[in-house]
Amino acid sequence: MKFEAVTIKDIARALGLSTSTVSRALRDSYEISQETKQLVLDCAEKLNYQPNPIALSLKEKRSRSIGVVVCEVANNFFSQIINGIESISYSKGYNVIISQSHESYEREVIDLRYLSSRSVDGLLISVSTETNDISHLKALHERGLPIVFFDRITEEIKTHSVIVDNFKGAYEATEHLVKNGYRRIAAIANSEFLNITSERLAGYKEALLTNGITPSDTYIKHCFYGGMVFSEIEDAVNRLFTLKQKPDAIFTTSDKLTTGLLKTLKRRGLRVPDDIAVVGFSNTDIAELLNPSLTVVRQPAYEIGQAATELLLQLIESKRPIKQFEKRVLTPQLMIGDSSAPKKKK
């Protein structure tokens, strides 16, 4: 049986009133007596009447909804961001429509086509790893759709963005490994086209240089899909361990890469940190519960979601065009576990 929502006609039929009277009562019109208004409200509650959002959006020229595009909801980092987005949007009367690109440019274009067809009031997006051409985003922006980027951003569109201090997070993680006695520190990173990759690798290299270690490209391996394709990580680790001077520590630049690395090392029978130390960007809630506990660069994901939503609502609700835009940079935190314990002398 097809579901049919309760309408104004159903309330009017139940009360023996005209639909125009019910409509005005629900709008709290001065033309309707207080007694009739209460009668209509009581009936609406009894029948579980909900205003039609599509009809309201046509009338108000606003949908009271926000579109969100991330690479993957199952990623701890992005799920925490979504929680932050929802904490602000729902308190302000906005619904949230979430789409996943799965790191696909084509899927991202389809997601945006759908969201724009639903007449969302604004868009929050972290671009996919395949997204080099942002013409689809430019077209929406030029048509007046408010857009805010977070985490993976582009400088090609003038708008607000929210990121973490990627350089600082990677610098502190790498320096921590150096101070614990590790010298051959490899890095497994996301696609080299993403801003998070270039910024985190810059911090990694600078920490090595500051501590008298010359960075080597042979110790840097890229995983284009950032760990969503597990074989990428296996291949990166295999290539690192075919080197004459094998790494004694590995730094990873994102959540999926970190967990994928641990899985790969376990399959190879390598012990952390006895055989190799590990530090990575990760927002997993079980970092402390792992054995050994995991040293991570934890990003303020919830706060990223909140900040991005606040900036988007400013764009949506501003009475005047906004011409000054902000890049908000939040601070990550190095949380030290046993996976990067001081290196034992052999």
Briefly note the structural class of the backbone.
alpha/beta
Oligomeric state of shown chains:
single chain
The helicity comes to 40-55%
Relative strand content: 15-25%
CATH level-two architecture of the largest domain: 3-Layer(aba) Sandwich
Shape label: elongated
Mean pLDDT: 92
CATH superfamily (homologous) name of the largest domain = Response regulator
Helix-strand topology string: HHHHEHEHEHEEHEHEHEHEEHEE
What is the CATH topology classification name of the largest domain? Rossmann fold
E-strand count = 12
Give the structure's gist in a few sentences:
This is LacI family transcriptional regulator. It contains 12 helices and 12 strands.
